[in-house]
Amino acid sequence: MSGRRDSVLREMGLAPLWRLRDRPAVDDACGQLADAVVDRAPLQAERSADTVPAAAGAVDLRIVPPLHSDARRGHAGLPPLAAGVAPAVTPEHVADGRIEGLDWDALEATILTCEACVLCQKRKQAVPGVGDRQADWLFVGEGPGAEEDERGEPFVGQAGRLLDAMLASIDLRRGHDVYIANAVKCRPPHNRTPETAEIAACFPYLERQIALLQPRLIVALGRPAAQALLNQEIKIGASRGRLFRYGGIPVIVTYHPAYLLRNLHDKGKVWEDLCFARRTMAELHARADAGAPENLPTI
Fold first, then answer.
1. Domain locations in the chain as residue ranges
2. b/e string for 223-240 if b means 16 or more Cβ within 10 A?
3. In 3D, which of 274, 269, 82, 78 has the Cα closest to residue 163?
């Protein structure tokens, strides 16, 4: 493991943990995982009865589609908004579908003036997203916090510093082949979890960001982000190590950095998820280089 990665993992609280005896490295990019630290038992216990657990050390490449389809969005292969939920306030630019034709700059300008839900009433500013607009990687979080609301950029507080360390641990960094966005673009009061109607009102913006970006892989950080993208109930523990799908784009689900700040014992699980994401991206690149379809095999 490089000295730089050692330093990053120490920042994440992981550096002393990833030493595995009598077993080869998982891969060159992610280093080694310690069975004594990453306890898979809770994950297996939370999986539903119809899910076949992966063998120890195996990667579950099951592609899990969204539960619902939507003819209006079907031409783009994209999931619907949250089923049966309408935003409290629907401005014209959302109601008439004009958002689907916006370019990056127009989209961000629209987000900054949006009044599609009650979150606009107490925000200081909306937080559209930040990063490389041609990135292969898209990380989607829950919503802005107090510092993000002040600065207008996602993940700039303590959770943002942890996210930067997470990115660095797999040789990524903010703004370089990485785009970062949130399920909702305005801060929920007191940093509460966004409500379903608020996520539904904001989803067209995230949908358009994904359509413009065309990422190869999406990493959903936390349950609200995962449920917004997949339009189904999600339990993070039961969803780790599996590939879901947003349209044709693979989605990996893991814990939100803010959750990790309160639950340090789960940092090891996120490190494992990052390694899974790195291997998945490597497979996507290998398939593209070989001229093969990028749809990963199902199990």
1. 3-289
2. bbbbbbbbbbebebbbbb
3. 274
Angle between helices 267-289 and 158-169 (to 10 degrees): 50
What is the pTM assigned to this prediction? 0.74
pLDDT tens column, 191-244: 899 999 999 999 999 999 999 999 999 999 999 999 999 999 999 999 999 999
So what's the architecture of 3-289 in CATH?
Answer: 3-Layer(aba) Sandwich (3.40)
Q: Give per-residue pLDDT as tens, 130-172.
A: 999 999 999 999 999 999 999 999 999 899 999 999 999 999 9
Q: What is the largest CA-CA distance in the chain?
A: 62
- Element (DSSP H or E) covering residue 169: helix 158-169
Tell me: pLDDT of 92 over 70. no
> Using CA atoms, how far apart are residues 161 and 202, in angstroms rounded to an integer?
25
